[in-house]
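Record type: monomer structure entry
Structure origin: computed from sequence
Chain ID: A
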Amino acid sequence: MSIHIPNILLAIPRNPVTAVGLPLAIGFLSGSPPASKVANTHWYHALNAPPASPPREIFPFVWTLLYCAMGYASHVAVKALDKSALIPTRDDLSLGIALYYVQLGLNFVWSPLFFGTHNTGLALVDSVLLTATTWYMTKVLDRPTDGKATYFLLPYCAWLGYATYLNGGVWWLNGPGRKYHGKDDPKL
């Protein structure tokens, strides 16, 4: 099964700087407006959090490292694609790179869903899809990159599992299917 990746989507990760810069930029664009909403409202602070929830201050640091690692993994995958002559290996790498962009899109929409719309249930669906896509992408890229991409993606996979647990816990503990309606919610 051959997947065609547009040249622009291959050109970005060929350079390690743009490979790392793309997820950093997408993370910044996705997280900046929601971060200001969190700082200016009581919604997030009023949520019941599941056990083992970290302090919110660590999220920017963790995500910055994970964005750098995932970006570099995309660089490793494209470089392997450029060197590979075997069709099955090229097909796996093309699929892995396509999945990389899918997971990047899913990652981008999570913050607006969770923080922007306060829809923890839809954010949970996105998180489950993001986690499954990323684990599958990591599996697909493992052999054709001789485990190099996996080295950079495994911390991301582990964090996504943890983040999905946190999202699921928030959804469950705060009333599945309901949105928060606190004193600062404009819907009141």
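Annotation 1: The two ends are 52 Å apart (CA to CA).
Annotation 2: Confidence is low (pLDDT under 50) at residues 183-188.
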